């Protein structure tokens, strides 16, 4: 229910205005004094204000100015029986939505308030939509069957309002798929709101999602809308939902079931109509088995599942992506000093593993565009950037015996691995991901010990940033493998 604040010293006018707005279904707060009205404005943040210029304790123009400092987006309509055209112009320039002279026409007041509310609602949507559109990237790039199938599924799923769960490695383009679903849907004119659940601290995520009332906690100086409320009518993208706590998962589940929630510190219920798209780089089925994710929330979200293949599994898309990013960054070069790439350098791109997927490829092409503008990128340039030897990525001039030589080398290496007790413990792990994690954990523990548990020295030795190494220690749960590591690690 939308709320109207009326500030006028004439009781008869307050009562008349209260009556027409209550009849129209509005919530009404009325006040005789300006300073008290300003306090109510700050606490309640009404949807619109009717403000008299002449008040017993203050100047309405000063109150208007103070309201603008608190929230300039709330429309304020000035009313007065003792003003001239100069005063009206002054208030409009100061941010008032309109100016109405007394004696008031109740019909005009009602129409003006309704128009102000519609204007404000459209303006909010325009701002939110503009922000989301500015962040919207181009369509999915690639000619592989996997990309063609993905595009086809997006078009089919976009017509529905059913929840969607997108799974894929980091950098594969989960948010891009979510945006494509939104902008191909009937909700395309409404906001697309995204939140990275892993990036928001646990003590703040509830406020970020559901908003809060003034005074709900220290620092909550005014009411704030949360992501759910901002996404009303549009799409809410919950990225990295697999990292959300069980407590917050239960709150998300309740909103999915009831389509309503309460702001933090609030008592009134807010109804919401938003399509939910969630994404994760984890196997939520595995997380359910570990007790880290609610099965009921999983089934609520997984109505239409999407899986995005890693770039290394669709190598035929790599040349298309390389050309696309080169064109994109060349267009952004203000000096018009463009980069090109040698044909034989493309093999290195195609044979590289791209553990960071499309994001990693995009970053490398952007780096070339900045550091090598006006140049032709050679095979050696690519090898240096990818930190590999040219021989590791093959050679276009190799004869047909190349595959046989590779197979022979692989068989030889596998034999060595099977005979090596150190390697065999990783070979016995059935999951490639878990085997890599086990090796990385052992490797980091070993290097930490070699460097007397000094994170900075260890990071430098193994070619990582200190911050990334610290994050890997936490993610790989290394502190549980080394007794009192927190006390031993030297900052």
TrEMBL record:
Question: What keyword terms does UniProt attach to this protein?
Answer: ATP-binding, Nucleotide-binding, Phosphoprotein, Transcription, Transcription regulation
Looking at the record's lineage, which domain of life comes first? Bacteria
SUPFAM superfamilies per record: CheY-like (SSF52172), Homeodomain-like (SSF46689), P-loop containing nucleoside triphosphate hydrolases (SSF52540)
Ranges of residues in domain Response regulatory:
3-117
Residue ranges annotated as transmembrane are: none
Residue ranges of every copy of the Sigma-54 factor interaction domain listed in the record: 140-370
GO MF term set: ATP binding; sequence-specific DNA binding
Which Gene Ontology terms describe the biological processes this protein takes part in? phosphorelay signal transduction system; regulation of DNA-templated transcription
Q: Does the keyword Nucleotide-binding apply?
A: yes
Residue numbers of 4-aspartylphosphate PTMs: 52
Read off the InterPro entries from this record.
AAA+_ATPase, AAA_lid_NorR, CheY-like_superfamily, Homeodomain-like_sf, HTH_Fis, P-loop_NTPase, Sig_transdc_resp-reg_receiver, Sigma_54_int
Q: What is this protein called?
A: Sigma-54-dependent Fis family transcriptional regulator
Give the species this sequence originates from: Candidatus Acididesulfobacter diazotrophicus
């Amino acid at each position: 229910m939308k709320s109207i604040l009326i500030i006028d010293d004439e009781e008869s006018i307050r009562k008349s205005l209260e009556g027409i707005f209550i009849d129209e279904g509005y919530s009404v707060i009325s006040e005789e004094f300006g300073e008290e009205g300003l306090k109510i404005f700050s606490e309640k943040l009404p949807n619109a204000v009717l403000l008299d210029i002449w008040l017993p304790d203050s100047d309405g123009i000063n109150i208007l100015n103070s309201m603008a400092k608190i929230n300039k987006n709330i429309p304020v309509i000035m009313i007065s029986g003792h003003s001239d055209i100069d005063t009206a112009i002054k208030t409009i320039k100061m941010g008032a939505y309109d100016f109405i002279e007394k004696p008031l026409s109740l019909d005009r007041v009602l129409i003006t308030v309704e128009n102000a509310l519609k204007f404000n609602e459209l303006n909010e949507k325009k701002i939110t939509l503009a922000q989301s559109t500015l962040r919207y990237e181009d369509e999915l790039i690639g000619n592989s069957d996997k990309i063609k199938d993905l595009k086809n599924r997006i078009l089919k799923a976009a017509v529905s309002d059913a929840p969607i769960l997108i799974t894929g490695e980091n950098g594969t383009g989960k948010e891009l798929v979510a945006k494509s679903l939104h902008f191909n849907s009937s909700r395309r004119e409404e906001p697309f709101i995204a939140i990275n659940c892993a990036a928001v601290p646990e003590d703040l995520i509830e406020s970020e999602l559901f908003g809060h009332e003034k005074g709900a906690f220290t620092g909550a100086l005014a009411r704030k809308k949360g992501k759910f409320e901002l996404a009303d009518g549009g799409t809410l993208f919950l990225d990295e939902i697999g990292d959300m706590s069980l407590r917050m998962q239960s709150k998300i589940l309740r909103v999915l079931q009831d389509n309503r929630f309460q702001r933090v510190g609030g008592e009134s219920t807010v109804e919401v109509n938003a399509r939910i798209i969630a994404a994760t780089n984890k196997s939520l089925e595995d997380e359910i088995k570990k007790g880290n994710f609610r099965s009921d929330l999983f089934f609520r979200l997984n109505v239409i599942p999407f899986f995005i293949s890693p770039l290394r599994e669709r190598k035929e898309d790599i040349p298309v992506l390389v050309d696309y990013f080169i064109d994109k960054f060349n267009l952004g070069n203000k000096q018009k000093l463009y980069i090109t790439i040698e044909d034989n350098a493309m093999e290195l791109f195609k044979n590289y593993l791209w553990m960071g997927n499309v994001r990693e490829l995009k970053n490398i092409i952007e780096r070339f565009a900045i550091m090598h503008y006006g140049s032709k990128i050679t095979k050696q340039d690519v090898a240096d950037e990818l930190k590999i030897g040219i021989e590791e990525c093959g050679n276009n001039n190799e004869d047909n015996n190349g595959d046989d030589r590779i197979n022979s080398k692989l068989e030889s290496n596998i034999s060595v691995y099977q005979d090596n007790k150190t390697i065999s413990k990783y070979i016995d792990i059935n999951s490639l991901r878990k085997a890599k994690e086990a090796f990385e954990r052992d490797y980091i523990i070993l290097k930490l010990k070699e460097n007397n548990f000094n994170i900075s020295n260890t990071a430098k030795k193994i070619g990582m940033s200190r911050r990334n190494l610290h994050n890997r220690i936490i993610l790989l749960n290394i502190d549980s493998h080394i007794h009192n590591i927190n006390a031993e690690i030297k900052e």
